[in-house]
Amino acid sequence: MNTSSYFQAPVQDRGGPAQPLLVVRDLKKHFPVRGGPLERTKKFVHAVDGVSFSVPKGKTLGIVGESGCGKSTTARLIARLMSADAGNMVFDGEGVDEFGGIRLKEFRRNLQMVFQDSFASLNPRLTIAETIAYGPRVHGMPAAEAMRQAHELLARVGLAPEQFASRYPHELSGGQRQRVNIARALAFDPRLVILDEAVAALDKSVQAQVLNLLQELKAERQLTYLFISHDLHVVHYISDYVMVMYLGQVVETGPVERIYGQAAHPYTRALLSAVPSMDPDNRTLASPLAGDPPNPINPPSGCRFHDRCPHAHPVCADKAPALIGMPGAPAHQAACHLNDPASGHPAALSEIQP
Amino acid sequence: MSTPLVSLQDLSVQFFGSRNACALNAVNIELGAGEVLGLLGESGSGKSVTLRTLLRLHPERTTRIQGRMLVDGQDVLALRGRALDFYRGGTVSMVFQEPGLAFDPVYTIGQQITEAIRAHEAVDEASARAQALQMLERVQIPQAKRRFDAYPHELSGGMRQRAMIALALACKPKLLLADEPTTALDATVQIQILLLLRELQRETGMSVIFVTHDIAAAVEVADRIAVMYAGRIIEQGPVGQIVRTPRHPYTAGLLAATVGTENRGQPLLAVPGSPPDLAALPPGCSFAPRCVHASERCRREVPPLQSVGTQALACWHPITPLAEAA
Ligand SMILES: Nc1ncnc2c1ncn2[C@@H]1O[C@H](COP(=O)(O)OP(=O)(O)O)[C@@H](O)[C@H]1O
Ligand SMILES: Nc1ncnc2c1ncn2[C@@H]1O[C@H](COP(=O)(O)OP(=O)(O)O)[C@@H](O)[C@H]1O
Ligand code: SF4
Ligand code: SF4
Ligand SMILES: [Mg+2]
Ligand SMILES: [Mg+2]
Question: Which structural domain, as residue segments, surrounds residue A311?
Fold first, then answer.
């Protein structure tokens, strides 16, 4: 099904296969927080603090990290649901909303989002077929054509149109509503889909159905995914690349096998070992981290992880580690002094065991 | 298991109202002293209803409860007045996914734990406060003295969860009901709470019913797992047996659909369809519409729960029958 003829510009590959679909550079967002009446200085939540990454075409980048680390804010900034304080983006070789680049309206259509809360994102007064047809109609698709496409999409996401097209959101289960949200995103024929905890609220048996559907759709439509999740198993399953965030920054990123097999950042290793074991004879004996994720209002100096890191050394509080490539694996990057021989950390380069 | 601490016998719960629902259908559960049972099931399977029934929290006018509930020798459905008040909190106590359900936002956590102790024990204010502080220390709240005077909203998610556990354990209950206490937490915090629960259980020797939809969380804390589907227990067994050699097609499906390291690059073996509407349960096995092994008999007759030793199973065509117990 090719719906692109109804939109202003064709959604074709422009930059060629080697050009990443999305490049994000130095994205920043600080939210002001209201202090008490006696507080003079304004405080800021450093929600996203200099995030850079790229997503190759047709691949899935998984984003993980504890709640509050800035995953959703990153997604919203990319989707331009809110404006960034700083940073820029390149979509398939073209600067987003820049002179001579891709226009914002065009970019927005190429990018669709699916959220966790399947209810909140559906209009309760529209039938699900109307919901799916709504966007394309606003963009100029004739009503009958938009409706026909909505029925096709419903069938594709596993909801028989004759049974479901005229139902309202409250008449569906959580898994069915999430299928509707996916169909609605696809109605724009996007190239990039951002899934923010899109399967988190689903029961395990239904979650597996939706993950399978996402994988099939990605192959059929050459989609690229940005997949945000707190579930490390799901991210492992679906991602080609993984990016780990901590307090608004990227601490490690790389191919999924490297992150899960040879994590180079102590925080990544802690996250991975916090996953329950599934083996009753080898239960988890100790928690890798103490306490809750810290508050991003006053992030610690130097390496932001230093107050929870088992390898912290005074240099970690003084100097912020840069995100650098691992020897022999430049796509695998981590921001930790241990990986940098010039950092001054006494244990740097001495092999640390995962 | 000589005399079990908890014995639910053919417990059924129906709700009447705008929508009638058979939330529990002849549930049988036995739990020994010091035992940890994981009650596993998807949303709507009846896990919370089971716990709320054990605490007699359902509105009487719109609820019909049938069967028997014996806890620590008491006939729970017969409890009235003071005896019921003492049972709640004194014999059985509960922690929730959302600490807001346990705490009153306008009192400090210290005040609330102190009050709970005084409601169950004849102690003066000062020693109740001392005990409350001790509880906060036992759940490993750092700077417990300072946190004693904190309001619930001033604590982080993990700390509130710990404080709620302190409140629940303040009156030394024999049975702790834990309703998805770690579901809303980050994995890094979840594992801390699971380890804490395990440690407190060992220290106190209490029994625990740990409700979860996450089999991995159950594996970390439970001795035994009971799997619920559409208001019925469909399989029960030691954790290792459930995880390694599930006998019921639903348990096996749930495990296969749980994403693990080995699944990468392959489609997941999802269970098709979704759980049934409790207001209109199918006549036979409630899993039949989703089950690849379903026969005519399955669609006609509800399979009875049969038990052998610590294992139980309700299925006409199990993957491995009970008799071949490992
Ligand atoms: N609109 C907002 N106003 C103020 N603070 C916000 C807003 N949105 C998010 N935050 C804060 O920014 C931080 C990052 O949030 P978020 O991106 O939602 O994290 P995640 O999705 O990783 O859990 C959190 O501390 C959050 O409270
Ligand atoms: N007070 C009530 N009145 C009517 N139906 C209820 C009531 N409480 C729970 N239910 C229904 O009982 C079923 C089981 O619910 P519950 O035990 O909360 O499931 P879970 O396994 O997710 O904890 C659900 O379908 C729910 O809607
Ligand atoms: S830089 Fe220092 S504190 Fe930060 S992760 Fe590395 S060793 Fe730990
Ligand atoms: S009784 Fe029949 S339908 Fe039910 S789980 Fe067993 S085989 Fe499947
Ligand atoms: Mg988020
Ligand atoms: Mg529940």
Answer: 264-343
The complex's ipTM works out to: 0.91
The 10s digit of each residue's pLDDT in A43-94 is: 899 999 999 999 999 999 999 999 999 999 999 999 999 999 999 999 999 9
DSSP for A294-344, written as a single string: PPTTSPPSSSTTTTT-TT--HHHHHSPPP-EEETTEEEEEE--GGG-TTS-
Ligand 3 in reach of A236 Cβ (< 6 A): no
Q: Measured in angstroms, how far is the CA atom of residue B88 from the centroid of ligand 2?
A: 21
Domain boundary among A239, A272, A292: A239
Asked if the structure places residue A254 within a domain, the reply is no
Considering every ligand atom, which ligand is closest to the CA of A307? 3
DSSP per residue, B36-50: EEEEE--TTSSHHHH
A200 touches chain B (CB under 8 A): no
| Residue of B97, B214, B100 lying closest to B153 (CA atoms) | B100
**Nearest bound ligand to the CA of residue A292:** 1
Distance CA B306, CA B303 (A): 9
Number of A:B CB contacts under 8 A?
128
pLDDT grade, residue A273 (50/70/90)?
Answer: very high
Task: Among 2.30.40.10, 3.40.50.300, 3.30.420.240, 1.10.3210.10, name the CATH number for the domain at B33-59+82-222.
Answer: 3.40.50.300
pLDDT digits (tens, 9 = 90+) for B221-246: 999 999 999 999 999 999 999 999 99
Q: Look at residues B196, B206, B276 and name the one whose alpha carbon lies nearest to residue B234.
A: B276
For residue A173, pLDDT beyond 60: yes
Distance (angstroms) between ligand 3 centre and the Cα of A265 equals: 8
- Does residue A338 have a pLDDT over 70? yes
Is some CB atom of chain B closer than 8 A to the CB atom of A170? no
Residue B317 CA, ligand 4 centroid: distance in Å: 6
Note whether residue A120 is domain-resident: yes
**Is there a single domain that holds both residue A234 and residue A280?**
no
- Residues A182 and A272 placed together within one structural domain of the fold: no
Q: Where do the structural domains in chain B lie, given as residue ranges?
A: 33-59+82-222, 235-326
Residues in chain B: 326
The pLDDT tens digits of the residues spanning A107-154 come to 999 999 999 877 788 999 999 999 999 999 998 999 999 999 999 999
Average pLDDT over residues A285-314: 93
